[in-house]
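Consider this one:
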Amino acid sequence: MCSLMPNTASRGMIASLSGIRGVLNKDVTLRELSDFAGNFVVRLGAGEVLLARDTRRTGPAIAKAVTASMMARGANVVDYGIISTPALFRESRMRERPAVMVTASHNEPEFNGLKFIVNGLGVGQETFADVIRRTKLPAQEFGKGSTRPSLRSRYAEDLVSQAGAGSCEGVRVALDLGGGSAISHAPQILRELGCETITVNDARGVFSRKVDPVSDDLGILRTLVKENACAIGLGFDCDGDRLVIVDSEGNKRSGDFMLTLALSELLKQSGEKKVVVSVDTTQAIDDIAAKSGAEVLRSKVGEANVVSLMRESGARFGGEGSSGGLIDGGFNYCRDSMLAAIVTIKSLRKLGERLYQSVPLYHQSRVAVAVPREKGRRGIKAMLGRHPKADATDGLKIWTGGRSWVLVRTSGTEDIVRVSAEAQTQRRAASDAESFARELKELSG
């Protein structure tokens, strides 16, 4: 994953392979976003480009500006309106077209930005560097593009076809749609699979909790699950790629736990012998992989890095525990919340509540340290001097004894340093995370 690029015009803008993000007219301007989209079209020589957005209030303005810029550079824009990021990845893959998603993913509602997709894959480093360059790339043609709405996305239909209509018959599911893009498809898909659904936060663009379900306590969803005797609760983010689950007793479970449940079932079903996860993902993945005779490969943090190693190694499955993200390369090369939800619900139908005790459980604690990125990097470098045996795949991963570890790394999407810890008890994980966060602050000055 690349970090903030030196030639971007707005100081507060975050630019990485995960996308361009910032507060509109503070960190990033409409003109900059338009220029980036125009550069994307020119760089790819694209004749047709797919466009979609999530439910943020700044989405329509950005979508119009981006559309005009791409049309001016000769592209024909197919506008899907509000759909999820996984849905647009699927459309891009099946139609073999580049795509632009107007979203800031899990960032709070005042943020927005762009995510670039090439034929179902996240954009590569070289292309991205051209996209966000300060000067516009020269276009071959100007003003010859057009725009038209797409009648529908095939995402829901493809998922139901793959899972089997009625295959989740009778499972009662509560959904916290978070005011986001999952409203467009999640209830429909689950009903077609036979689930009984109850929804909350199902008004588009109305955000009554934190956008990121990993960071929110999901109190309303937990209550909904308990009061309605649901087998599971599903919490989505704004663009519909992240998922957090609530178990049948109303307990919010971690993204790592959700990913472990899903990969455990998929590895058993498929017989796949490789799985790729990020370096900060729970070691429970190693435990379930060992039972299936599969090898675990670990990448740098970030969806793009996981996908890159999946394709390089030939692994079909992968994911990131910290973001509640499952990736099934047979369907989508991105985090896909609905894929994860369907796998988990089908397992629930077979095992009932025993599912929640069917995989190993470790405890995680994550602390975000608000230090400028450069100071954070200096602090991490100084920490390596204190912990020379640390794994430097991405930041520093330090084993602290037994089956406990701490990872310290700068975020690629926010101006913070993340300190993640895992241990066999919550107390140990929290203690380790706080201890290393203090050490980072000390060494960062």
In short: Residues 426-444 form the longest helix (19 residues).
